[in-house]
Amino acid sequence: MKKEGINKAIWIPVIAGVGALTILTALLVFFGPRRTEVIPEHVLFYAENQTPDYPTTLGGQRFADLVYERTDGRIKILIKSGAELGSEGEVIDQMKYGGIAFARVSLSQMAERIPEMNVLLMPYLYDGPEHMWRILEGSIGDEFLQKAGNYDLVGLSWYDAGARNFYSTGKPITCLEDLQGMKIRVQESSMMADMVSALGASPVEVVYAEVYSAIEQGIVQGAENNWPSYEAMNHYKVAEYYTIDEHVRVPEMQICSKVVWEKLSKEDQEILLECAKESALYERELWKEREETSRQIAVDYGTTVIELSADEKKRFRNAMSGVYEKYCGDYMDLLDRIMEY
Predict the structure, then answer these.
(1) Is 13 within a domain?
(2) Of 10, 101, 170, 315, which cross-links 260 as Cys (Cβ 3.0–4.6 Å)?
């Protein structure tokens, strides 16, 4: 006998042996509409040099998820963390030619290519986090995002990286006089070295991975960094005093390759900007939580926290006049504008 369609005889024993719900599910799977998988029009790489669980990486993933959702899957962004696509400097250079679509980079790296960006990196520039975010979320911040175009990049939004503070062993840093003659570790940065010198201390360049042993062995008496770095690298175990002077706040920028940007529709460009700003708010909350956790770990271990008074911070800032002139001589009007904002 010729079989057409599904032989009912096959289904009779099946129905007798299973429940109605199971049968209904099987029928829906067999006869129901097939879900078509969305094939993205654009699959783009996003470079991040931090670990997968770091606030900036998680912020980037939120950005990618929002973009995928709001473009109905037309744009898929793949986050490559842990410097898989290269160092921040290498990534920026690749983006100029469209090799990488998106990235989150430190503003210090952008300043290497766009000198005017140095203005936002100056020591003791901001009175606190509220002051910095008033600048970055206002007209001045928008101006600096647009300056990314000078290197064939598009500035999307600002990410937080906290404030850097001094920490020491042997004696606390409570005022400007305490820094006189101290050996302080600095990163490979002429500006940071000049800042430490201007405060009366002696800068000593030590790579990040060796700071713990440098403090432990007495090569330096202190260093400077943010709370998460101080805690993550166990520096709190060898430098028991942490002085909150907030000498540097280095914001970070989410950027897009101009080559990639110009291939997208105006509508998609607007979606990217919208999602970037939303992801930035998310990253800031994560950073705040990370800072509080790191601080608590250090304090529980025995770290003594010193908070400088407003008057003492002013003395630290006043010592920076030569540094401001050296690195922002052509932009002193803008520097004053930021300080007074």
Answers:
(1) no
(2) 101
Q: What would the pLDDT profile of 39-86 be if each residue is shown by its tens digit?
A: 999 999 999 988 898 899 999 999 999 999 999 999 999 999 988 999
182 and 147: one domain?
A: no
Q: How many domains does the chain have?
A: 2
* 86-98 pLDDT per residue, tens: 988 899 999 999 9
Q: Indicate which CATH number applies to the domain containing 199.
A: 3.40.190.170
State the average pLDDT over residues 100-125.
92
Q: Does one domain contain both 120 and 207?
A: no
Q: Note the helical H segments in the chain.
A: 8-17, 20-31, 55-70, 88-95, 107-113, 129-136, 139-147, 190-198, 211-216, 227-232, 258-261, 266-301, 310-318, 321-328, 332-339
Extract the tokens encoding 279. 């992801």
Q: How far apart are CA 310 and CA 312, in angstroms?
A: 5
Residue 278 sits in the same domain as residue 183: no
CB 104 within 8 A of CB 59: yes
| Sole residue written with tokens 């070295």 | 193
Distance between CA atoms of 274 and 194, rounded to whole angstroms?
A: 39
Beta bridge partners of 223: 167
**Residue with tokens 């970070």, as numbered in its chain:** 252
- Report pLDDT digits (tens) over 220-273: 999 999 999 899 899 999 999 999 999 999 899 999 999 999 999 999 999 999
Q: Are 277 and 340 in contact (CB under 8 A)?
A: no
Q: Are 257 and 152 in contact (CB under 8 A)?
A: yes
User: Following DSSP, what letter does each residue of 201-266 receive, concatenated?
Assistant: -EEEE--GGGHHHHHHTTS-SEEEE-HHHHHHTTGGGT--EEEEEEEEE--EEEEEEHHHHTTS-H
The CA–CA distances, whole Å, from 90 to 83, 95, 298 equal 10, 9, 34
Decide: residue 78, CB within 10 A, 0-12 exposed, 13-18 middle, 19+ buried. Answer: exposed
Spatial distance between the Cα atoms of 310 and 313, rounded to a whole number of angstroms: 5
Q: What domain range includes position 105?
A: 42-161+250-284
Q: Are 252 and 284 in contact (CB under 8 A)?
A: no
